[in-house]
Amino acid sequence: MFILKNSSSISQIARLRSPKFRQTGSNCTLSFWYYSYGQSVGAAELQLLVDGLKQPTVLWRTYYSEGNQWLKAVIQLGRLPHPFQFSLDKISLGVYDGISAIDDIRFENCALPPPALNCEGLNHFWCRETKACIDSLLVCDLVDDCGDGSDEDNCNPDLQCDFENGLCNWEQSVKDDFDWIRIHGPTPTVNTGPLKDHTTGTAGGHYLYMESSEPRQFQDQAILLSPLFNPSGNGTCVFRFHYHMFGKQVYKLSVFQRTVSNSLGWLLWYKFGNQENRWIRQTLYISSTKPFQILVKGTVGDGFTGDIGLDDMSFLGCTLYNGNLPTVSTTTSGTSVPATSPKNNCTEKEFVCRASGRCIQMTQKCDFRPDCSDKSDESDCVMEVCDFEDKTQCGWHQPALEQMSGSDSIQTTNIFKWKLGRGANLYPEQEQHSPLTDHTTCTEEGWYLFADSSNGEFGHTADIATPVISLTGPRCKIIFWNHMNGSTIGSLEVLCKTSNRTSKLWTQSGSQGPQWNRAEVFLGIRSNFQVIFRAKRGVSYMGDVAVDDITFEDCSPLLISGKPCTSEEFTCANKYCIPKNNLCDFVNDCADNSDESPTI
């Protein structure tokens, strides 16, 4: 179907209506290919028209010519229980000169689950009227997966929130930078944020979102606090939520668990970057021997196209705690750690948790997953996220300087090496070849790490390395921001060192301009290795290499949960569970390549 016309009539609309559909299942998606090309081709949008609702819901938009090519649009519809149809509108304001076309319209996974003759096992729920057999994790999650609503009957409203009538029993933190906003319809900024909520799938439904436009700045945080819960057994409490992370400058969404009120707690889950224009379901298993609280933290990225959405948050198998969490006057971890190891029966090949004396495998030390209750197994390791604002190097160290520790202090002072710096401390002549502002705060007061070229000679190198990292997961990567400006800038390399073998993973040389540039290096599954930043000095002092905001993303190794994989997961040959979205994506997510097998 196409429009081909040259016209100058004002405000023309070409409208294409679909047949009327009765309903859809919870995993329904619509896809089509479109062509929008021409000097004044104009805008087009796809609207959802639901019986009984006056307000249409915009599902998709294109504003201008997108080149001489066919492009694919994928739209998440989700569960729509009432009759509906689509309207594809092509709008011409003044002059229309171009070609607009649509082809290959496809609906996928739109049927309700089929009826089953039986539905046995603790992991399943048998729908009352439709007789479908669904995963028990779909019960009381604010989504009608059965098609008759029976999976959402007799649910505790205190354990659910769809934000249709406020925040329920969730609260905004007073110790963050700004608040989550309750909204319906699209967010104010185009090309970021949801167009509709997840509960109703329409513009009339409400959700929470984090606004990334001014006056927000990079790494501003908005934190949402759950009600308090009683201690739960091993994975008996389950937290389900839907998140939306769409936009070129989306940064990070994190979930924490805490047992004291004056601590952020420990990290349960996080996601970085643009995840496309869709709501994504996440399920977290929670264990705690003490009363606890969940914190959901959104972090602002580098610009205004970084809105993040939340909707349909629910708990299963959890009970509310009628009391308050204690406060602890101690270190940032919220746990006092004894200076010496307690009595234990650990072997030389095991690590002793400092607070409890528990023995864990040495391979669990420095693997980006705290296995000790006091997180002591990750305390002498490289930090997962480092912005240098606390004036430390976050576990990074310089082997060459350590070897010279007994040498003459003048010798170590004048060598080419890495050190902390900030724009406020620059000499006037340094401003042409060193960062005036850091990347984290974008101010002269913010700190970064740089290799000082005022020392050393042409070709000298400076290495800064992590402690040994015991094990990483299949999607592990390091993300960092670098600043390389100056007439005689040298080079920056990222290396991987295993035993006595060192390999180059990334390199960049020469001046890259007076701005911070993002870099991403894939690590994948590795064991007993170090990451090294190596700066090489240019022919003169007119060029300092700097790095900031170093992040190890998705680096914790795979973990066998001891439970069967859910319907949303794939069971690897080695019994690991991975999201089904990770199948056949050319990445060895299972660590045994079974997710990339041609026989799947």
TrEMBL record:
Disulphide-bridged cysteine pairs: 140-155, 366-381, 565-577, 572-590
Highest taxon of the lineage: Eukaryota
Family matches, as InterPro entries: ConA-like_dom_sf, LDL_receptor-like_sf, LDLR_class-A_CS, LDrepeatLR_classA_rpt, MAM_dom, MAM_domain-containing
GO CC annotation terms, alphabetical: membrane
Keyword entries, A-Z: Disulfide bond, Repeat
MAM domain: residues covered: 1-112, 159-320, 384-557
Pfam family, one: Ldl_recept_a
Protein name from the UniProt record: MALR1 protein
Protein source organism: Xiphorhynchus elegans (elegant woodcreeper)
